Amino acid sequence: MQAEPCTYIIFGATGNLSRIKLMPALYHLDVAGKLPQGTRILAMGRRVWDQQKWRSEVRDMVMAKAHDAFDEQVFQRFCDRLYYHQGDLSQAECYRTLAATLGQAGQFSRNIAFYLSISPADFGNVISHLSENHLLSEEYGWRRVIIEKPFGYDLDSAQALQKRISHYLAEEQIYRIDHYLGKGMVQNVLVFRFANVMLEPLWNRNYIDHVQITHSESIGIDTRGDYYNSAGAMRDMLQSHLLQMLTLVAMEPPVSMEAEALRDEKVKVLKSIRPIPKEAVHAHAFRGQYGKGQINGERVGGYLEEAHIPTNSTTETYASMKLYIDNWRWRGVPFYLRTGKRMAKAQSSISICFRHPPLQFFRDTQVHCMAQNWVLLGIQPEECIRIEMTVKEPGLEMRTRTSSLDASFRNPNEKATDAYEDLLLDVLKGDRSLFLRFDEVEYAWRIVDPILQTWAIERDYIAVYPAGSWGPEDNRLFDKESQTWRSSLTPECK
Ligand SMILES: NC(=O)c1ccc[n+]([C@@H]2O[C@H](COP(=O)([O-])OP(=O)(O)OC[C@H]3O[C@@H](n4cnc5c(N)ncnc54)[C@H](OP(=O)(O)O)[C@@H]3O)[C@@H](O)[C@H]2O)c1
After folding, report:
1. What is the dihedral of CA 428, 188, 25, 30, to 10 degrees?
2. 243 and 130 co-located in one domain
3. What CA–CA distance (Å, rounded) separates 125 from 164?
4. Is the distance from the beta carbon of residue 86 to the nearest atom of ligand 1 less than 6 Å?
5. What residues of the chain score a pLDDT lower than 50?
């Protein structure tokens, strides 16, 4: 697919996401020569800034991320693409002046991507205003709307938002972001599974004991206390990113890598997940909140001491969940998902544990119990694909050790790209395969809704884990004693 020139309109351009991700990503796309000629970036902001002030702000945003890769000449070219449009998005006037600006002959491409990097509460209103000003009509060029997460707060609100926006937009115009799908290693899960024939015969209930998906962060909630306290870890991470990773691990090979084929298979996985009845929530899900502790030798406060957090909050900063996929391939294999803030280490990984060999062959030797094989997929910050095997130790004794086959994803001289670079470029190409279709979002909410509803009424108690640990003791989620959380991507210290 070819990227076409377009006008990128960023609502909320002065906000955190734009500052740390969107503007640096657009700059890096320009450095890589990926922004088609004629592409313009129009920032929408309510601050009374002029073009010069906006360009100097963007310079700071870009420099903070580009470090030594900052190139003054490219930045000047990038600057020529930048415009600032002042207005309050709650006022109808803002959209009238926007439409007039866009209508100025020859200035802006008629292909327009609207990026809604604003509060989710404003998504519906902004889209309705854009429509009233004929800015979503595709008569003279394509119109695409990128919607940040979260899409809804629960199943009902997601359906209500969808109903509202589908009044103004066709599904093909909607790009629902889950930026995890833009990560190179997440896409590599598909390549690893479907470009290598070796593992496919083993990728099922006959050989796999269980699957673990972990996203841990060592940071707390920063300045996002208001948002986080109303969301919590289940909504913020599990419902979106972790369930998406699960679909990629568990899906059947799609008929093609085309968007609809890929998303059809992901939805089938979500539909096959066994619903968790409310009375079984405690056997399937666990929550916790960080207390004070130490991270990298530094003392840090607990969640209740953070800014904007009520002192009686029971919002979870840690959530774990066990799911079963009731289909031919996965019936009976538990998938364990967990996420947490202020954990021992920042890490996203998928760990696939294979079954024990059927016989303990080496009974009369030093080898009492053979380790299981694991496939380890490090998503971030360490990117890796590793297969752990048992081998004999050199020497006269019959002892074994675990050795790993490493299929490194990136050579040291190959640069990492940020997920938002991929996704922003895909919008220009009209490629929606890494964006969510509404039924994916809907089924993901169906899975977590019973848990959220149960937790919402149980407000008296939440388990506390020390900051800097691997979270609370939630061993009762595991089906067998031999199953425990795996927190390391190396064999030495499971
Ligand atoms: N930040 C992240 O790491 C992150 C990660 C994933 C998803 N998201 C999602 O991305 C979106 C943006 O998040 P954020 O963290 O960037 O939020 P933010 O820092 O609060 O930024 C919100 C933006 O909206 C603007 N805004 C608010 N009310 C406005 C109005 N009436 N008229 C015009 N502009 C208005 C703000 O302008 P002012 O600057 O003038 O206040 C600001 O630019 C949210 O949907 C969030 O859930 C963010």
Report:
1. -60
2. no
3. 9
4. no
5. 493-494
16 C-beta closer than 6 A to ligand 1? yes
Cβ of 6 less than 6 Å from ligand 1: no
Structural domain boundaries enclosing 119: 7-148
Q: How remote is the CA of residue 116 from the centroid of ligand 1, in Å? A: 9
Does residue 142 share a domain with residue 216? no
Let me know if residue 127 belongs to a domain. yes
Domains contained in the chain, number: 2
Residue 166 lies in a domain: no
CATH at 383: 3.30.360.10
Token pair of 345 as six digits: 């280490």
Cβ neighbours of residue 479 closer than 8 Å, sequence gap 6 or more: 210, 322, 334
Beta bridge partners of 269: none
| Dist. CA 151 → ligand 1 center (Å) | 15
CA–centroid distance, 458 to ligand 1, in Å, is 31
Pair (295, 444) in one structural domain: yes
pLDDT, tens digit (0-9, with 9 covering 90-100), for 324-341: 999 999 999 999 999 999
CA angle 148, 118, 84 (to 5 degrees): 115
47 close to ligand 1 (CB < 6 Angstrom): yes
148 within ligand 1 shell (Cβ under 6 A): yes
Report the pLDDT value the prediction gives residue 368, as an integer from 0 to 100: 65
Ligand 1 atom closest to the CA of 17, numbered from 1: 16
Among 67, 241, 282, 368, which one carries the catalytic annotation? Answer: 241
